[in-house]
Structure formats: C-alpha cells, structure tokens
Amino acid sequence: MPWTLIDSAEIPGGAAPMQLLSQGDTFSIRVGTAELMTNRDRDSEQALATMPCARLRDHAAPRLLIGGLGMGFTLRAALDALGLHAEVVVAELMPAVIAWARGPLTHLFGGSLDDPRVDLVEADVNRLIQSGPAKYDAILLDVDNGPAGMMRRQNDRLYDAWGLRRAHYALRPGGILAVWSGGPDRRFKARLRRCGFSVEEIRFSARKPEGSRHVLWIAQRGDTPAADVSSD
C-alpha cells in the first residue's frame, strides 16, 4: 500500500518541510526521507514520561514541561502516571503539529489535550526553560531527534552546555531532565554529567525483534552545575 501525504508544513529555520503521511492505520511524521516518529513505535516515547514520573510519585502536585507534542504518546503516558493535581506544560513550535493532533491524529491523543492538567503552548521549549528558576520538577525533551538534530540548527541549543545549564537552572532541587534520542551519544552523556546531573542511559529497540536503537537519558539535577562546561 503506498503512502499518502496528508499535510506538510515549513519548519522555521529548516531546509525541508515536515510531512504527515498515512498508510492504512499507520501514520508517520517525516522530514525529507528521515522518519521522526510513527504510531507503530511508541515504547521509548512513553518511557520518556513513565520513568521520570515514577520518581515523582511522592510529589503532591508535580509540574512537568514536555518539549515536543509529536503524536502524544509522552503526554498520555505522563497523564496516566500522574495524580489529579499535577500540571503538564507542553511546548510545541509547529502550529501544524498542533493542528494534526486535533485533526487526523485525534484518535491517538485520546482526549489528552482536553485534560484540565494540560497547558499546550505554541512556543519554542527553549523560551519556557529560560522563563525562570526552579519552575519544574521534570523537563522531558523529544525535540529534533535528540542531540544529533536534523530539523533546525537552533534546536542544538537545547543540548549544548549552555542549554543544559539552563535546564539545570529551571529544575527544582532533585528535578529530572529526560531526553529522547534516535541514537546513542557518548559526548552528550558526558556533557550532562559536567553540567551537574547524575545520568542513567536506557536503550530501546524501536521495533521488535529488530530495529534501530532509541536512547533515553534520565538525568537528575545535582546541587550546583559545574562552573565551566564549555568544552566537550
């Protein structure tokens, strides 16, 4: 069965457009020939929420920031894992992705966008991270395929030393920065540690029994970031 193009949208600062395609019951979001996400592979996107939320179970009213709406798997997993008094802020840069979530992908979201705990903001997640100190108990980033981005150069600022120090600043004591990536990155893992985080790395198969390996870094905020983390 051939793929059908549902919609496409220009990426601010990007070279190729983002496309939403379907093939029967399968949906795919792509940039050029690179697939960013599909509804067939969701385990690692869900774990991006469930693993940090498990560490927040003693928080009466945790506040989370999710960078990247995608197909909603991280958001739904977070809502399922959190209590009634939680707050989940979702930052999505692309208006088209929000429109797809309320249009052809509505069935994947299962009403999560209408949950009173959710605040969906059309914005660069970088702006929300920089909005003030100690605002979040967890920051979950699934932006531009991880540290080795492919969509827009501006996203690199989330994962460089400057961006990690800003994330550290935006987290409350003991807060968690969770990062999804399409593949491993030893330099990024080391950078997290130099920026004042303790780090756990988890690898997932995108599709069993074989498939590409997705990676999660679960990084917990230490007391203070390193003074100089400008080099890799």
Model description:
The protein is an alpha/beta fold and 232 residues long. The protein contains seven helices and eleven strands. A seven-stranded mixed beta sheet has the order 7-6-5-8-9-11-10, sandwiched between helices. α1 (43-55) packs parallel to α2. The model is unreliable at 227-231 (pLDDT under 50).
Question: pLDDT below 50 for ≥5 consecutive residues: which ranges?
Answer: 227-231
N-to-C span: 46 Å
**Strand percent estimate:** 25-35%
Strand order of the largest sheet: 7-6-5-8-9-11-10
The helix/strand series, from N terminus to C terminus, equals: EEEEHEHEHHEHEHEHEE
Radius of gyration: 17 Å
Q: Which range best describes the helical content: under 10%, 10-25%, 25-40%, 40-55%, 55-70% or over 70%?
A: 10-25%
DSSP summary, beta strand count: 11
The biggest sheet, with number of strands, parallel, antiparallel or mixed sense and barrel status, is: 7 strands, mixed
Average pLDDT confidence is 89
Number of helices: 7
Approximate shape: globular
Structural classification:
alpha/beta
Put the structure in a nutshell:
This protein has seven helices and eleven strands. By secondary structure, it is an alpha/beta fold.
Secondary structure blueprint with pairings:
Elements (H helix, E strand, L loop, with lengths): L3 E6 L8 E6 L2 E6 L2 E5 L4 H13 L7 E5 L5 H9 L5 E6 L2 H7 L4 H4 L8 E5 L2 H5 L6 E6 L19 H10 E11 L4 H9 L2 E9 L7 E9 L11
Parallel strand pairs: 5-6, 5-8, 6-7, 8-9
Antiparallel strand pairs: 1-2, 2-3, 3-4, 9-11, 10-11
Helix pairs in contact: 1-2
